[in-house]
UDP-N-acetylenolpyruvoylglucosamine reductase (Thermobrachium celere DSM 8682), 304 residues
Amino acid sequence: MMNLDELKINLKTFLDEDELKFNEPMKNHTSFKVGGPCDIMVIPKSKDNLIKSLELIKKYNVPYFIMGKGSNLIVKDGGFRGVILKLTGLDYILVRENKIIAGGGASLSNTAREALLNSLKGMEFASGIPGTVGGAVAMNAGAYGGEIKDIIEWAECVDENLNLIKLTREELNLSYRHSRVQDENLVVVEACFNLEKGNYDEIRGCMEELNRRRLEKQPLNYPSAGSTFKRPPGYFAGKLIEDAGLKGYRFGGAMVSEKHAGFVINYDNATAKDVLEVIKHVQKTVYEKFGVTLETEVKIIGED
């Protein structure tokens, strides 16, 4: 049986005030801007504090979920019973010649910017991806023909037994929106990217062009979690949704973007229920019309 009160007391013994929050509204921590409160939020600023927190969470048998910036997450309106471990406290970026080592909680776009500032090429595709390094490794994030698996050298992770392990690119088993991190419930605390020396102006030009295309095609002025659905084999989710006549479909404050049908957006103070109803309707309609099952790319947690 989970014991939240004792867990709270024990976490307070070693975590700083800014590393620990109680009854924290999750809408303040997700790019969709929806979600009820979590019982406990831990934002560890060191690997040691992360591991010590996990030890206690397991000792008291409390459910937990690992998150980064919440750019690929929907928390239901009833919130999350247990602990949300938010890794954004592990936020550092180090440059070693043509390699960049970044904390699991570092912003992926900031890491790509650091690559630019050091005239290192290979991370241009990541400059507009809104998540963290840890989340990007876990789901092999990609855009515009580039993926994390193209540039990663290794990732340091905490395994289920709370050991720190270092996995090479091959050992990470990276594939489309998938990795060993997901299979084995690992926590990415650090990653090393192997880049090439390049020309600053060319790298900047490439990043500006990709970000211009993003701005042109994606509804970046509304809260969302980016592409809501995974690409089904042989199809494009956005095209299927558009061909099903669902652009602009609304439920409550959520809708299918009229700019890009692959995005469900929070256009008017949506609840998580509104967003999930739109997702459900899209999945049902696309399956009925085309026989294609759309899987969500976004993670959904919590209770109604």
User: Anything to note?
Assistant: The chain has three domains: 4-89, 93-216, 237-301. Residues 93-216 form a domain with the Uridine Diphospho-n-acetylenolpyruvylglucosamine Reductase; domain 3 fold (CATH 3.30.465.10).
